C-alpha cells in the first residue's frame, strides 16, 4: 500500500532535529533507517504529517569506550555493530545479536536507536540491551535524561520516550570476558525470532515472550542461588505471556524459552 502524504525534513544537526521535533510536536515522527517506520506507514497504521530524517546524521553513528561502559550512538546501524572492533572486545554479545537481524539490506539500513524506539517485543537488540542492563539516553529541548532498559519498554510498540524526545545514545557495561550467548529460533534464515534468548554475565533476556522484551528473573535468581543450569533454565518461562500466531502457541514458545535458555547458559558457561 502507499502511505498517506507527508512532509519531509532532513536537518543537518542533532540540535536542529531536536528543535524541529519540539516545534511540530505530535505531527512529527523521527525516521532513522526507515525499516520499521515505512512498513507501518504503508499499512497506514501511522500517518505522520512530517518525517524528520536523522538517518544521515554522522554525529549519531559511533561506538566508543567511556569509562566502565561502551557508548553507542543511536544512529549506529546493525552492520556497524556487527563489525565493531570495540564491541568485539568489550561487549561481544551485541555484534553476535546484530548479525542475526534480518538480512544484509536490513542490517545496512536499520539502526539500534530505531530498533529500541520501535518497541517490537520480537526484535533482537532490545532484549540484548535489557540483558546487558543497558541505559537509553534521551534528548529533548528540556535537556537530557537516562532511562534504564528495565524501565524503557512499557507495552507492545510503546516506550517511556516522550513524543519530543530523541534517543541519542545507548550505554552498556563493558562485559569483557564474562560468558555470553544468543540463541535465536526461526523457521527460516533471516526471519524474525519465534523466541530468542540473550545471556550475559548470568542475566537472561527473552525475545517474543510477552508484550515487551523480558528478563527471565526466576532463572537469574536460581543461578544466583547456585542452582544448576538445567534447574535454572526450567524456570525461564515463569511470569511470561507469549503471543499466539502462525509460528506457535504460548505453550510452544514457553517450551522454546526453556530449551533455548539452557543452550544459551551452557554456551555462556563454556566461553
Ligand atoms: C524485512 C525486514 C526484516 C527484519 N528483521 C528483523 C529481525 O530479524 N530482527 C529485528 O530485531 N528487527 C528486524 N527488522 C527491523 C529492523 O531491525 C529495523 O531496522 C529496526 O527495528 C528499526 O530501525 P530503523 O532505524 O529502521 O528505525 P525506523 O524505521 O526509522 O524507526 C522506527 C521507529 O523508531 C523511531 N525512531 C527511530 N530512531 C529514533 C531515535 N533515534 N529516537 C527516537 N525515535 C526513533 C521512529 O520514529 C519509528 O517510530 C526487520 C525489518 C525488515 C524490513
Q: What is the average per-residue confidence, as pLDDT, rounded to a whole number?
A: 96
**What's the end-to-end separation, in Å?**
47 Å
**What class would the helix/strand composition place it in?**
alpha+beta
As a percent range, the share of helical residues equals: 25-40%
Determine the strand fraction and express it as a percent band.
15-25%
Radius of gyration: 18 Å
Task: Using the alpha-carbon principal axes, give the shape.
Answer: globular
Work out the count of structural domains.
Answer: 3
DSSP summary: helix tally: 12
CATH structural class of the largest domain: Alpha Beta
The total of beta strands comes to 14
* CATH fold call of the largest domain: Uridine Diphospho-n-acetylenolpyruvylglucosamine Reductase, domain 3
Q: How are helices and strands ordered from N to C?
A: EHEHEEEHHHHHHEEHEEEEEEEHHH
Gross CATH architecture of the largest domain: 2-Layer Sandwich
Strand order in space, largest sheet: 4-5-10-6-7
Profile the largest sheet.
5 strands, antiparallel
Bound molecules: flavin-adenine dinucleotide
Q: Which ranges are low-confidence, i.e. pLDDT below 50, for 5 or more consecutive residues?
A: none
Structure overview:
The chain folds into 3 domains: 7-53, Uridine Diphospho-n-acetylenolpyruvylglucosamine Reductase, domain 2; 59-173, Uridine Diphospho-n-acetylenolpyruvylglucosamine Reductase, domain 3 (2-Layer Sandwich); 180-270, CO dehydrogenase flavoprotein, C-terminal domain (Enolase-like, domain 1, 2-Layer Sandwich), CATH 3.30.390. It is globular and about 55 Å long. It is built from 12 helices and 14 strands. The strands form 4 sheets. A 5-stranded antiparallel beta sheet has the order 4-5-10-6-7. The protein has a 4-stranded antiparallel beta sheet with strand order 11-12-13-14, sandwiched between helices. Strand 8 and strand 9 form a beta hairpin. The mean pLDDT is 96. It has 271 residues and is α+β, with helices and mostly antiparallel strands. The structure holds flavin-adenine dinucleotide. Flavin-adenine dinucleotide (FAD) binds at residues 29-37, 39, 74, 101-102, 106, 109-111, 113-115, 117-118, 123-125, 166-167, 192. GO terms for molecular function: FAD binding; oxidoreductase activity. This is Carbon-monoxide dehydrogenase (Acceptor). Its EC number is 1.2.99.2. It comes from Pseudonocardia dioxanivorans (strain ATCC 55486 / DSM 44775 / JCM 13855 / CB1190). InterPro entries: CO_DH_flav_C, CO_DH_flav_C_dom_sf, Diverse_Substr_Oxidored, FAD-bd_PCMH, FAD-bd_PCMH-like_sf, FAD-bd_PCMH_sub1, FAD-bd_PCMH_sub2, Mopterin_DH_FAD-bd.
